[in-house]
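Researcher: I'd like a structural prediction for the single chain below. Treat it as a standalone chain; there are no partners to consider.
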Amino acid sequence: MVLVPTQLSNDLFEKFSSLVYANTGIFLKPEKRELLNARLGKRLRKCQIASFAEYYDYVQNDSSGKELIQLIDSVSTNFTSFFRENTHFEYLANTILPEFVGQGGGECKVWSAACSSGEEPYTLGIILNEFKAGHAGFRFSISATDISTKVLAQAQQGVYGMDRMQTVPSELLRRYFRKGKGKGQGYVKVKPELQKGLSFKRFNLMDQFPWQGELDVIFCRNVMIYFNRETQSQLVEKFYRCLKPGGYLLIGHSESLTSINTKFKQVATTTYKK
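Model: Treating it as a single chain, here is the predicted structure.
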């Protein structure tokens, strides 16, 4: 039986924090030491590694980078829900999309920049499909990314317990989800029509963005709270560059750009326009 230390030393916490920050931009404050201790302890037991120091060396010496991804998965926080902070989706449906169509449109390109286990991009898919039903010729695509391979796997499966569906109106639940039977009792699965036009991919927000002035809407909500101000500023500037003129950035209700020097103009609650 592998014995795992009960406490992560301050020195090793600093080393892991620096490693995470360098690769993800996520700033782990000192009060996160107990959380990191618990989450890494699970990973050590799974890898049959006896100490935090040995695990740190293991991550550093893994030339494949796979264990670094596992480490990042361990420290990532992934709380989400369907129609979370619903005023954003209402603004998308009632303001952004009609404006897009009114300007001649084309394909509306949307990015869910921290999609977690899929609830946000699938909610976006519902909103966009509902809008499409009333606007002939409207086209869209959704790019859904996250740094965690674990939650991306869940998102791609598109299977959710009924307890996770309480915020989805019953009519939309019937239209876009299929109820499970037998072993799948108590679960629903996303229908193929909702998955159409939606792609999932692992992406690190610290990497170079593949878009330049191409996107119409970016949802990046409840992510920047984990970054320091310098990283936030750099990220917001990258978002600005990859949006079309008139494009929108929507951030979490607990977040703000007031302390950041940016060209974005606020047009609604935590909603910004290029």
